Amino acid sequence: MAPQPRLRRALALLKSIRRPSPTVSIELDRHTCGLKHTYTTFDRIQGSVTVIVQSETPVENISITFEGTAKVSIGRETCTLSNIEATQTFLQLKQPVARGIDGVPKVLQPGHSYNFPFTFVVPQYLPCQSCNHDVSSLGLKQAHVQLPPTLDDPRLGYGRRTTLDYVSSGKCHISYRVRVIILDGSMPGNKRPSRLVDCAKSVRIIPIAVPLPLPIVSSDTYTRTEQNLSQGFAQPGLGQLITEASHIPPILLQYPFDNNCVHTAVRLNLRFNPLMDAAPPQLRKASAKLQISTFYSPVPWEDYPSWTDRGLANGWDRGAFTESFSITTFSMGSLNWEKHQNMGGGHRTRELDGLSLSDHTAPCNDNQSYYTAFIVLPIVLPQPRIHIPTFHSCLISRTYSINLRLSYHTPKAALQSASTTIKIPLMLQCTPKNHHTGLEYETTSASDSAVMNVLPPPEYVATV
Length: 464
Description:
This is Arrestin-like N-terminal domain-containing protein. The two termini are 44 Å apart. By secondary structure, the protein is mainly beta. Strand 11 and strand 12 (237-245) form a beta hairpin. The chain folds into 2 domains: 19-205, Immunoglobulin-like; 224-340 and 368-433, Immunoglobulin-like. The chain has helices spanning 5-18, 138-144, 310-314, 438-444, 448-454, and strands at 23-28, 38-39, 44-52, 57-58, 62-75, 83-95, 107-108, 113-121, 172-184, 194-205, 224-230, 237-245, 251-256, 263-274, 282-296, 319-331, 338-341, 349-352, 355-358, 369-380, 391-392, 396-409, 419-431, 461-463.
């Protein structure tokens, strides 16, 4: 009596478990970038896969792909302390293997070593179907289909550190890898073959900047403050201090792909509207901090994330973490205030070095005087670091801001510890290397499928 189908499958499964697995190794060609296994837009990721099988294996059972994956984990504060997780494979480029190329048999023989070269081109955009959810604006849709950078990939170890990023929470990851899968098609009656081998080699991706509509500045940032100065409780006021950044937010900071030196400067315009004949305050110290925020969610974001998002308050399907680094701190000398005289009352608008300051908050007395000044603060990002560009993907976003704090004192001793703070959004973008212009890159841009189609098929060589 012939064995039953279940018995045949069980015997085949037992045989496959006892059979040794194929040996697979992935090697990447030497890259010209200073950082190992780091690539940017339109770079070629080249290398080879060496395969040694232990039994006859059809070449069509071998798959070589380049994949980009985002993973998010949210801990829910319930009685069971459960987690909700989401994984999105937003990119998958396939290397043609089973095309009947000369030198590679259709069935690989045991004991032989076969070498499969591969070539992948880092695309500029993701397939449109990678973002198929509702969004609040066209600009956000365009941001979601851009290639996101590698973020907190634990497989990319660097000495004792698992990541070169500023902050790491372990709650969200964006990783890229060259992946090799060998299927077992020998089991009869099995519609879905099992995997004999599933191995991968991780790489770091830092995409170049693509011109996009700037996101709407969120309500948790502010580039102008108005502060009333007083001598103390139940004492007459001294006047009003207005601090405003001259930049139109956000600050756009571009840095070269192969250079970690990132710096800029921020100019602050100051105005003091005195009461009576009060003297303007004098600055004591200026400091700047870089704030890095990462937002993540297992549910796709429909709008630009910010700290004012209601979902962050309950922590049910939204998460975020942040960290700040001091980048500038120095004592201020004597600040040169320039005195101005308003001739006539009413609402007035003055131009101060290209910045419009309205007088509607100042007293409207005739011949009212006011003072103006400005300071320039250098901004140098910490080194050595991997400066991950600002990005917004379906599940994960990274944003930056510059927090500027000015400490000052007035002629009254009670106000020596007074200070004012403004928070300016910062947009980091990686620029093309080798001094290429953005226009040159735009003329050669293409979708991932088109790039793969124009490449010549690699020549496979079988060695014994």
